[in-house]
Design brief:
Keywords: DNA-binding, Transcription, Transcription regulation. By secondary structure, this protein is an alpha+beta fold. It has helices at residues 2-5, 8-20, 26-33, 37-49, 68-74; strands at 24-25, 53-58, 61-66. The chain is built from 5 helices and 3 strands.
């Protein structure tokens, strides 16, 4: 988990998800933090594999949301610090 959070782009994705309070599409994240769709997808995969996010696929679009249970259990207070 900590390795996944060590990347500044991933922290920005987590911050964006936290501030939105809902799931966000891959394309929307890329536009918000000025990264290509493939780069955002790479970061989504790392966050998902670390158990920090959930990914839902609808048609050709992927949507990501935070796994609040994981943050509360393993990284208590982390989201409040963003």
């Amino acid at each position: 988990m900590l390795k996944a959070l060590a990347d500044p782009a991933r922290l920005e994705i987590i911050r964006l998800l936290k501030n939105s309070g809902k799931e966000i599409g891959c394309g929307e994240v890329g536009e918000s933090i000025d990264l290509s769709k493939s780069t955002v997808s790479y970061h989504f995969k790392a966050l998902r594999e670390a158990g920090l996010t959930f990914t839902r696929k609808e048609s050709r679009e992927k949507f990501v949301s935070l796994n609040y249970d994981a943050f509360n259990k393993y990284l208590s207070g982390f989201l409040d610090s963003l």
